[in-house]
Write a structure and sequence with these properties.
447 residues; elongated; Beta-Lactamase; 3 domains; 38% helix; six-stranded antiparallel beta sheet; Rossmann fold; alpha/beta
């Protein structure tokens, strides 16, 4: 510790002056002081045999403030009262929290946290990436914080297991990859989820769709249409799936199947299933396909798949074709047509034994509606199209677009969204009882 402090004091007051334009808590000087103070605190805790976990937050804060002041005075470190308070708060997070990540994890506006090495941290807010105002002392600091998050989850991150994907207690997801697979230091991605998922009304108010589409989605779920939500990464697929599931009648039994449990359905009867990765030798793995097969024996009314990305597509098609109407899933694809091509490809990889024509007939028979969602350049997430799957014609799956999203500029050159009806009403007989309701919704939106 002494060598660290000496190197800091050798920088002298001039070094602080050169960094005046930089926020103190983002400077290397701050990281040097923080590292040394953290080591000093750990030594003091060990000397006093203190059990900080049993202390109240106020007691911990008072202890850290007192010991930090003693450290600063002992080593004559030039910090003012404001910088002293920043240092104390950072040390509280280092001792009892998740270090520099604590403030981002507590910020409800942060959707994603992306760590590209110790001094390159980005966050996503409202769909747009921006540089975060935090940094770590070094790569070891990053690993210490990430391992602190992973330890209670029973997951490890080291040279023998340099990749990890874990679900956080609050429903978020963490993915980390380190050396030797990550060349430039630890790469960590944390996806946060709202404790209270968006309702359909909230998404409509945020401009993700209009009332006519709200009415169509509601009617489709209530009519037990099989719906596939298609979109790119971070386009809002999970949020939309959560919202649409709230339309399900309270009497339904819903089973969710996911790789990493992210869905938080607002429904009274939900059974959540999550796949399991294998041990170091690969044994004990439980895949989504296994969970899909088991879910069919659990008396589901609806099956909701967090994301279709592998051989489980065959079980999904089987479920949708054998009486489990009203099931929903998401898939990575850039358009409804790409979505259908991707399902064919996944089924082929899964070892589908039938002909191409029979596979397409199964897909067309299983799916009723494809909802395409995208993230625009300004970060907004909107439904860009709603497409009905009609059947198979000339060996191709026939579809028709019901709504298309378009943008326009007002007189002040501000960009707005609108959803244009293409004049087609859904052909699906499941929606027959809702046709008048849909006509009234379209008329209401028009005027």
């Amino acid at each position: 510790m002494e060598s660290n402090v000496i190197s800091m004091s050798s920088t002298g007051p001039n070094s602080f002056a050169r960094q005046a334009a930089m926020s103190f808590d983002q400077s290397q000087q701050f990281q040097d002081v923080l590292t040394a103070a953290h080591e000093y605190l750990l030594n003091r805790v060990e000397e006093d045999h203190a059990d900080l976990a049993a202390w109240s937050p106020a007691t911990v804060l008072a202890f850290i403030r007192r010991e930090t002041l003693a450290f600063v005075q002992q080593w004559r470190i030039p910090v003012n009262d404001q910088e002293m308070e920043l240092l104390t708060k950072a040390l509280v997070n280092e001792i009892n929290g998740y270090g520099p990540l604590q403030v981002l994890l507590e910020d409800p506006s942060v959707e994603d946290i992306l760590i590209n090495g110790c001094d390159n941290v980005y966050v996503s807010r409202h769909g747009r990436l921006e540089k975060a105002g935090i940094r770590f002392s070094d790569d070891r600091h990053v690993l210490r914080i990430v391992r602190r998050i992973l330890n209670p989850l029973g997951r490890r991150l080291d040279e023998s297991s340099p990749m990890v994907d874990a679900r956080l207690p609050d429903g978020g997801r963490l993915n980390a990859i380190i050396h030797p697979l990550a060349v430039d230091g630890p790469m960590v991605s944390i996806r946060k989820f709202r404790n209270d998922p968006f309702s359909p009304r909230e998404l409509m108010e945020k401009g993700s769709f209009d009332y006519a589409i709200y009415a169509l989605l509601k009617a489709a779920v209530e009519a037990r249409c099989n719906v596939l939500i298609s979109g790119g990464t971070s386009s809002g697929k999970t949020s939309l799936l959560n919202a649409m599931a709230s339309f399900c009648p309270a009497s339904d039994r819903i089973i969710t199947v996911e790789d990493t449990a992210e869905l938080a359905l607002k429904h009274p009867h939900v059974v959540r299933l999550e796949s399991r990765t294998g041990g170091f030798d690969g044994s004990g793995a439980i895949h989504i396909r296994d969970l899909m097969r088991n879910s069919l024996r659990m008396r589901p009314d609806r099956i909701v798949i967090g994301e279709v990305r592998g051989p489980e597509v065959l079980e999904m098609l089987q479920a949708m074709n054998t009486g489990h109407d009203g099931s929903m899933a998401t898939i990575h694809a850039n358009s409804p047509r790409d979505c259908l091509y991707r399902m064919e490809m996944l089924a082929g990889f899964a070892g589908f034994q039938g002909s191409e024509d029979s596979l397409r007939r199964q897909i067309a028979s299983a799916l009723d509606i494809i909802v395409q969602i995208s993230r625009l350049g300004n970060g907004r997430r909107v439904i860009t199209s709603i497409t009905e799957v009609i059947g198979v014609s000339d060996t191709m799956i026939s579809t028709q677009d019901i709504y298309q999203h378009e943008t326009y500029l007002d007189l002040e050159q501000k960009e707005h969204s609108r959803w244009r009806s293409l004049g087609f009403h859904p052909h699906n007989p499941k929606l027959e009882p809702f046709r008048q309701y849909l006509r009234e919704a379209m008329q209401q939106e028009r005027f």
